[in-house]
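LAB NOTEBOOK - FOLDING QUEUE
OPERATOR: T.R.
BATCH SIZE: 2
PURPOSE: Compare the predicted structure-token outputs for two unrelated chains run back to back under identical settings.
PRIORITY: normal
REVIEWER: second-year student, initials M.K.

ITEM 1
FIELD SEQUENCE / FIELD STRUCTURE:
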Amino acid sequence: MKVNADLHIHSKYSAAVSKGMDLPEISKEAARKGVNIVGTGDCLHSGWMEEINALEERDGLYHLDGTYFALTVEVEDVHRVHHMILLPEISKALELREDFASKSSTLDMDGRPKVHLDGAEIADAVLDAGGMIGPSHAFTPWTGIYAYYGSLDKCYQEHAKDIPFIELGLSADTDYADRIADLSTRTFLSDSDAHSPRSNKLAREFNQLQITSLSYKDLEKAIHREGGCCPVLNVGFYPEEGKYNHTACTRCYRQYSAKEMDAYKHRCPVCQGIIKLGVRDRVDSLADYPAPIHPDHRPPYLHLIPLAEIIAMAIGNKSPYTAGVQKRWEELIQGRTEIDVLVEVDLSELRAEPEVIAAIDAFRHGRVEVKPGGGGKYGEISLPVPAKEKQRSILDF
């Protein structure tokens, strides 16, 4: 069977997260989105763990109203690098929590705890607990692994061989990551890192997996690409949308090359702001290949944004939350899910204005234009056909 999975979210117990991120609300919105498996996030937090444990356990996943939750948590190491962890059962989460207790003072203060261990030490504890670990949003300039290390070996040391996946994050896609030879054997995950259950946050990036049953064991097999289980599609943003894609000044947003940044000693000659190295240039510095070389096991990557964002662009609205956008969104998902509309359904079956249908088709086929962001300013996407008003920027991601 083919399922959709968003394995990285945060709960109401994490800082700067909507109080609506509770299990019933996540389950409801995941069903409307079309996501079958959602990571719990924050599973080392005692309050969240108690709520998860109240759900019905089914083959290592936790079930609520048709949505299956996999035990996950993101932790920050002593070097500020973020790691994504998946665990097979509550007892293993408790075991890992106990291991981290003396190394963290924030286990019950923040769903994303800070652990005073390095990546190799965290991996050692996770593997001892029977879990899986990999870098979260690997290319993010502030807390991604490649902001601090040049390779998985440098971070995870002797456990690098045991890292089955990396999470691409909103900053990168398959083309970026497959320029690095060391990553050719790893599974790529595309997840939302959602802080809100809204349809333009939850599963804004997601994975389609081929599995035989809804179970943790098959989820594990899919990540390891074993027993006929594997990812079949990654879905996510254009990296150029990211606010640190190009090297740029963090004050005036003027963009520079990496060589110019070095020549100016990281100071903008125009406004004296700090020039921040962009993800694109960081990938160039790490790359083994001038162009991506995709291994045979790598699934396609589809660049999409949430349906409400597409509708807003198509009709010229500034916000995906306006009544007009939400009305059209509700009509389009009637009897189906958002992912069905974005990825699966024949466009001739959809009932909406021609410009909305054309916009969905443009994203499906990559016929959009992207003006890259940088220095903290998001990139902008425009459609290939005129909208009713000036195209909006992709903000609030």
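ITEM 2
FIELD SEQUENCE / FIELD STRUCTURE:
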Amino acid sequence: MKVHISDHFTFKNIFKITIFPIVMMIFISLYSIVDGIFISNFTPGGDAFTAVNLVFPLIMVIGSIGFMMGAGGTALVSKLLGEQNHEKANSAFSLIIYSTIGLGAIFSIGGYFLIEPIVKAMASISPDTTEQMIADAIVYGKILIAAQIPFMLQNMFQSFFMVAEKSKLGFIFTISAGVTNMVLDALLIGLLRLGVVGAAVATITGYCIGGFGPIIYFALSKNNLLRLGRAVFEIKVILKSMYNGMSEFVSNISMSIVSIVYNLQLLRIYGQDGVMAYGIIMYVSFVFIAIFIGYSLGMAPPVGYNYGAKNHQELHNILSKSALIIGIVSIVMALLSGLMATPFSKIFSGGSESLLYLSAHAMRVYSIAFLACGFSIFLSSFFTALNNGTISAIISISRTLVFQIAFAFIFPLLFGDDSLWWAIVTGEVISMFLSLIFLFANKKKYGY
């Protein structure tokens, strides 16, 4: 039986509405993971693998605009639907899509010309970098940046499929994109040995399926809660969507900036092995954190709807059940990543014993972060759905930017190089407590 965003949410209904976005996010995270597996096992040396890990955070910085417009637009459109203003909700939905396409075109053109000097500046930090690694990073980055329109749209539609109550269809688009990426990776990297070019082509092909496919669907389908069509230009709709989604934008940008900072620090401390070890941890982290993000995406439309409908009792119900679910999943993730650190690391280590030891050790430390990050991710999304972009952004900035970057520089100075791995954990724990402070401080205001 179909679950509507206006329903009462039992554990069964929560499972039904979140299972597809969770699997969607896992498959999206597999894009870069599959690239990493094939590159690390089918290209000689570590240049190509290091190149991909060095440049991918830069791509995510630009693609984060799609997350911002999706999450922020979802909050706005869900609220309008809760107020029974369906015509304005569809106009806002259409305007947000058209605006995202325009932004994608602008950033694709600008990013294409900027990627080369940025990569060269980053590579200059370490004497261990090679000309081949720099060349691979530039080629991989230019191809992915050229596909920012479908990448942004794919990121955006993840949220809107939830509002349209078409999570299963969103799941199908994402699975199709993910499977296409994997098959092309096997063909282009494994069989034809095209290296980073093959990896990039496989990835952007998946982006096109996940980004352009939904546009065709929403434009042609007539019996949807949301439909792509005529839009009344209202700058406040665009600005409101940006404001609501600022936390998701900041969160994704911050994670990318944190990755860049850690890569530079690790290049300095460990050389290429450090960047590769961090890349391995991030690949495992992508999948685990995707579960939290997918859950938050699935629950955001009901939160936004009930906020618009002033149904405070249901907001409390969603929040209390979500806290329990996230708590249990966090414990399972921490145990699993800690116990499976060595097997996970073997997948990407390419037979290098030193890389295997370094990455397994780092992953055991990092596993503690899973006990805290889920709460911060959900509460940031929760406040976005309540149309409070300010608190949501503060949580995201604190979690992914302020604490982690500060500790990335401070910890090695105070406690030695190995303490760099603990900087992430410490930042996650502190941001969780900050999120809980905001939650309790605003309980009376929102009535949850």
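REVIEWER COMMENT (ITEM 2): The CA atoms of residues 133 and 347 lie 21 Å apart.
FOLLOW-UP: none requested
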